[in-house]
Amino acid sequence: MDGWFEFVLARYNYWIVIVLMMTGLYIVFARGNLVKKVVGLTVFQTSVFIFYITIGKVAGGTAPIYIGGELDHGDGHGKGQGHGEDAGHGEGAGRGEGESLHAVPEGEAANVLSGEHGEETLASKIDNLPANDLKAALESLDPAPGPAETPSLHEPPEGDLGKISNDALIDTSKPEPAPGFDLAREVHGGAANALDAAAAHGEIIYTNPLPHVLILTAIVVGVSTTAVALALAVRIREAYGTIEEDELEALNEMAEFGHTLGPAGARG
Amino acid sequence: MNLIAQLPALAIITPLICAPITIVLPRGRAPWVWATIVSWLTFAVCILLLREVAAGGEISYHLGDWPPPLGIEYRIDLANALVLVLVSGIAAVVFPAAYRSVKPEIDPRQSTFFYCAMLICLTGLIGVTITGDAFNIFVFLEISSLSTYALVAMGARRDRRALTAAFNYLVMGTIGATFFVIGIGLLYQATGTLNLADMKQLLAGQTSRVVDAGFAFIVVGIGLKLAIFPLHLWLPNAYTYAPTAVSAFIAATATKVAVYVLIRFLFTVFGFDFSFMGAAFTWVFLPLGIVGMFIASLVAVFQDDVKRMLAYSSVAQIGYMLLGLSFATVEGLAAALVHVFNHALMKGALFMAVACVVLRAGSHSIQAFAGLSQRMPITTWAFVLSGLSLIGVPLTVGFISKWYLLEAAFAAGHGYASFLIVASSLIAVVYVGRVAELMLLRPPAQEGPYVLPKRDAPLSMLIPMWVLVAANIYFGIRADFTGDIARRAAEALMLAAGGAP
Fold first, then answer.
1. Mean pLDDT per segment of 10 residues, for chain B of length 501 residues?
2. Which of A82, A177, B56, B310 has the fewest C-beta atoms under 10 angstroms from its C-beta?
């Protein structure tokens, strides 16, 4: 019973997704008001956004904003990969600024990790949820050049600044930098190990940024869909004087057959 | 920079960049001329692509030079090169005719936006076809769908029902797209990649409920966009009330692209190793295809609106494509691909003929077609010829489609299916014959709203229409061209899917 309860609780985000998804779909099907239908669609789409964000979560990972030191001590390419935002990132980036590119300040990395480390739920979370994500991410990286050959974030090759930023993006676009991989393979062994070891390597675990990026795109699509749907609802209101589906159907049937069909006809 | 190497990007960029420019052009002919030129350019790019692929094999284009599993990849093999040529070709034919056809049908203030939306729709359809990235497919699918909703709604000037049709289409289309994106999310969870080819490798041997659920979501999601028989409810109204040029364009392209996406996911991503494939073919696509063929054809017989009749016939034709691919053989898949191509040609031609009638008669009711042969003989014969093609009369593309399908049905041991194909074609004889009889044998209306002047459609519409009719006959005689490409494409797809070649 206890295990079952934990099983449900540990996946609370998936339950939210399912409940929202079903609620949204139900609203779309059950409500006759066009605007309510649009609301239902939006709820339905929002559940998918949450689902994607759930996929991207790596237990113990920090926000996928590069904090291991500044890549851009040169002036030209600072804006290239959105490092402009680092300014707002506070301590990490601020302190990193002075450091050399090649060494991540160990203390800082540890700081980041230990913050998450303390959380009780962490171990159980890692046991259950993100195993998929991590493993999957790892496997998907296999065909890519191994981290050993790739210049990691922390050892950018000199001279080719443009390339640095490229590689940085490739690295961060997957949840785990090199040493994390081996650890993540043993992720069932416990998150604490992974994090400890990652900290010892001076590695920072980032959450997977790709789902976030995808969902930003999906949000844009969702917003435009909502906008078009509402614009259509406005036009329908202008043309028909109503946005209730059964009344619209009755009006359409009047136009087509000269009389209404079904129960809506009683009102027409 | 070698321009040939950049062709895959150009196919997208050309219409995408040119679409917003349309809005700033002065109203009148300018946006139409611009959109037409762009559609021709895109068509040229796609033909070059097909030539490259036919000669040199698969093209893999790395967008922004990011290597594939991480970056977005455009991957063009014969299957999607064929669909690319089809989509851009239909655009290149429909756009020139759009001006005269659409002028009385939409609000003149919307004319610039109309061509902008048409170009964006074209971009989306080409993007769906060309890309090798799962999430990219979703984005392009929504680009094309959103513009289609707007285009359908523009038919409101003639009939306000276009608005409710567009709204229903939007709701169904969005649910479909969201299902699709849930499916992609599940597959991403199982593989950690969005690249289709990469996904295939990582999915190999995986059996988990995550993948199973992803498969189900993707099939239902595409099924909605594709208007597979019980999910087709948005289609008849959308095609009926859209401006006729839009009907011609989307009837010939949108569902075809969705069929392509379905084929791509079934054969390239999942393959025959996947446990649900056999069941999906035997218990979903085969029965739904057959049921769709019959029910939609029967419904088409009883329609009093020619556009709606053609729309139901489209649902029935999708049934043939599903039937073809559900055989899961090279012949079946090739038949489905050939029919994708051929059906676009015949439906394009038929809707263009209806567009000519709508221009002169102001209605697409079947009454407006009475005695048409005495009023608009050129349009009448175009309709009759492409109608014959829809039925599957020899020397037309429809015959080639049916021939390939029958052959595939026998080869796959579904002998009864060949009987059903012929039987449902007979229903097509009824609904096409009904209109043909009215056009050829009845006297034209002497009074009432359907009195037509003896004047055929303008040349700008007749020429594109006859180009499509000629294509119907040309590819019906020179069947080796499409047949050969479709067969090679099908062989490659089957090989990738791990089936017996």
1. 80 92 88 93 93 87 83 88 93 92 87 92 94 92 94 90 93 94 92 88 83 92 91 92 93 93 90 82 90 93 92 93 90 92 93 92 87 88 93 90 92 87 92 92 81 82 93 89 88 79 45
2. B56
**A258 CB near a chain B CB, below 8 Å?**
no
Q: Is the pLDDT of residue A148 over 50?
A: no
Residue extents of the structural domains in chain B: 275-496
Nearest Cα residue to B364 out of B276, B244, B231: B244
Q: Which residue of A has its CA nearest to B171?
A: A41
Instruction: Tell me, rounded to whole angstroms, the distance of Cα A72 from its chain centroid.
Output: 26
Among candidate residues B326, B324, B332, B475, the one with its CA nearest the CA of residue B399: B475
Which of chain A's residues have a Cβ under 8 Å away from the Cβ of B210?
A: 132
Minimal CA separation from B409 to chain A, in Å: 39
Whether the Cβ atoms of residue B430 and residue B423 lie closer than 8 Å to each other: no
pLDDT of A120 > 70? The answer is no
Whether A239 and B160 lie within 8 Å, measured CB to CB: yes
The answer to whether B245 touches B151, Cβ cutoff 8 Å, is no
Q: Residue A262: pLDDT band by 50, 70, 90 thresholds?
A: low
Give the CA distances from residue B352 to residues B311, B460, B464, in Å, rounded to whole numbers and listed in that order: 13, 11, 8
More confident residue, B250 or A74: B250
Chain A residues within 8 A of B67 when measuring between CB atoms: 144
User: Which of residues 161 through 180 in chain B touch A, CB cutoff 8 A?
Assistant: 161, 163-164, 166-167, 170-171, 174-175, 177-178
B62 beta partners: B73
CB atoms closer than 10 angstroms to residue B457? 23
What span, in angstroms and rounded, lies between the C-alpha atoms of B350 and A220? 37
Smallest CA–CA separation between B186 and chain A, in Å?
9
Residue A248 to residues A241, A265, B446, Cα–Cα distance (Å): 9, 11, 35
pLDDT at A163: 37
Q: Which of B138, B143, B163, B365 to mutate to test the interface with A (most CBs of A within 10 A)?
A: B163
pLDDT of residue A166: 40
* Residues B124 and B130 sit within 8 Å (Cβ to Cβ): no
Task: Tell me which residue has tokens 């080639």.
Answer: B400
CA B168 to chain centre: 20
| The pair of three-digit structure tokens given for residue A43, joined into one six-digit string | 């709820």
Domains, chain A: 2-54+214-266 (1.10.287), 58-207 (no CATH)
CA distances from B336 to A208, B271, B325, B328, B343 (A): 40, 17, 6, 10, 10
Residue A17 confidence (pLDDT): 92
Rounded Cα distance between B429 and B386, Å, is 12
Q: Which of B69, B164, B177 sits opposite A248 (nearest CB)?
A: B164
CB contact (8 A) between residue B70 and residue A170: yes
Q: How many CB pairs under 8 A join A and B?
A: 108
Residue type present at position A113: L
Residue B163 identity: L
Both tokens of A140, joined, read 């998907």
Strand, helix or coil for residue B103 = coil
Closest CA to B193 of A230, A159, A211: A211
Cβ pair B210:A132 closer than 8 A: yes
Q: A-contacting residues of B 182-241, CB under 8 Å? A: 182, 185, 188-194, 198, 201-202, 210
DSSP for B153-168, please give it: HGGGGT-THHHHHHHH
Instruction: Indicate which of B60, B70, B186, B199 best probes the interface with A, i.e. most A CBs within 10 Å of its own CB.
Output: B70
Nearest to B142 by CA among A152, A208, A223, A257: A223
Dist. CA B495–CA B238, nearest whole Å: 37
